[in-house]
Amino acid sequence: MKKVTVSAPSKLHLSGEHAVVYGKPVILVATSKRLYVTLEKQNAKCKTQNEIGKIKNELHYLAKIVKLFEKKYETAIDNNVNLTVHSDIPIGVGMGSSAALAVATIGALSQWIGREWNPLEINELAFEAEKIQHHNPSGGDNTIATYGGLLWYRKELDFLKTFWLLPFKIPRDFSSFMLINTGRLESTGELVQIVGEKVKKSTSSIMRIMSDIEVTTKQIAQYIHDENEPEFLGALKENQKYLEELGIVSTVTRKLIREIESVGGVAKVTGAGGIKGGSGVIIAVHKNPNKLIQIAQAYNFPSFQVQLGGEGLRREQVVI
Ligand code: MEV
What atom of ligand 1 comes closest to residue 94's alpha carbon? Predict the structure, then answer.
């Protein structure tokens, strides 16, 4: 029976979030947490809630992605095709869940209608989807979801985006990352817009911060390349300082990060941040991860680990 499953990974920003919207470079790493989209013919006897016909009548992101795909390829997916999403990516907290959804759904639909496997084309359409959802995305999130690994990305112009898959990994002997989910109340689009207002009001001081972030992003690439962990951690800390200056880190997240620093650790927001509640997932590093687990528990924040450098967009099963 015809069946397609395509998956895409989540991501972490090591440095360059927000600045990337203004043409600065960003370093992203894919993680082992993934999202899976499956398409299969509906069994007439056992109708589910996931029929494409029903999904298209909804207002959520998935519906917009399906309609964008149909418009782009002047096609109509049968209403009775079943679309199921399985994901272990925490939603809306900076790990790229929406980009993974766009990339995996477009990948799965393109296989369903028999198009050639073309990650470049899938990534471009996912960027269009991300524009609908987040208004002014850089395109970094969909690009890491497509290509995975450790990625250097820069958007020069809407039609001119450059990226390098760095031919090295975060060294194995670097301390592992602990991820702490502080939650978030604002959407990525809202946070990007808040920074946009600041840029309009005080262009030179905010653009100075963006330039400082660019320096840090380059240092981080260099220190990973040189396998220099102390300098790498110093640059992560520096990046966090600039994100705080940008005003996208909430009071509780700043308190948590200061506490981690006070016991000799380093932590940074990854992704768009968050102002009113938490600031999404933070990357935390300490020689003794138990210390980080204890601090997270004291705040009632879940903590977890992931493997870094995961594979990008992947065809899990294609039976046509
Ligand atoms: C969001 O994951 C990262 C931001 O830099 C926005 C973007 O790159 O589109 C805040």
Answer: 2
Distance between CA atoms of 32 and 12, rounded to whole angstroms?
Answer: 11
Query: Which ligand 1 atom minimizes the distance to the CA of 99?
Result: 2
142 bridge partner residues: none
Across the range 255-283, mean pLDDT stands at 98
- Residue 131 amino acid letter: K
133's CB contacts (< 8 A; 6+ apart) are 61, 64, 98, 102, 189
Instruction: Kindly state the helix (H) or strand (E) to which residue 98 belongs, with its residue range.
Output: helix 97-112
Atom of ligand 1 nearest to the CA of 137: 9
Task: List residues near ligand 1 (CB under 6 A).
Answer: 17-18, 20-21, 94, 137-138, 140-141, 188, 192, 271-272
pTM over 0.90: yes
Rounded distance between C-alpha atoms, residue 195 and residue 205, angstroms: 12
Q: What percent of the chain has pLDDT over 90?
A: 93
